[in-house]
Specification:
142 residues; alpha+beta; Aminopeptidase; 7-stranded mixed β-sheet; Acyl_CoA_acyltransferase
Length: 142
């Protein structure tokens, strides 16, 4: 079955809220945070027909910052997040990509490294729980 890649907007707010609670239990973004993100930034999803993987991103003239990327638990380890990243790279081929990830999230770091990201720096005690953030970058396809 082919998965569709699509833009998500404010009409997807409730669906994204549900995805957040399933993907980030205890650390999910609030309705106001997601609503504000959708008002000023962009979101993308993949799935068929329901969204199985999504990304909340900020686009500037020169870069893309990935704020959130997640796959529903029952669809993990199928390569969906990597497919979503590849779709984003194709959509924005001339832009640098940035993201941050908890240093303890080894599966995500492995995914990002396999998708062409490299580590820029580490920010100690960055997250509210005191954990370290790993800042990563991917250069344009060019």
């Amino acid at each position: 079955m082919s998965l569709s890649f699509r833009s998500l907007g404010e009409d997807h707010l409730k669906e994204i809220l549900t995805l957040e609670s399933l993907c980030f239990p205890g650390e999910e973004w609030t309705e106001k945070m997601i609503q504000t993100h959708l008002e000023f930034h962009v979101a993308f999803g993949m799935g068929n027909p329901e969204i199985q993987c999504y990304a909340l991103v900020c686009e500037t003239p020169w870069e893309i910052e990935i704020f959130r990327i997640a796959t529903l638990p029952k669809f993990r380890k199928l390569g969906l997040a990597k497919q979503l990243l590849e779709q984003l790279f194709q959509k924005f081929p001339k832009k640098e990509f940035f993201l941050e990830v908890k240093e303890s999230n080894e599966p995500a770091i492995k995914l990002y490294l396999s998708a062409g990201f490299f580590e820029l720096e580490r920010r100690k005690k960055y997250y509210p729980d005191g954990s370290t953030a790993v800042l990563m970058k991917r250069n344009p396809i060019e």
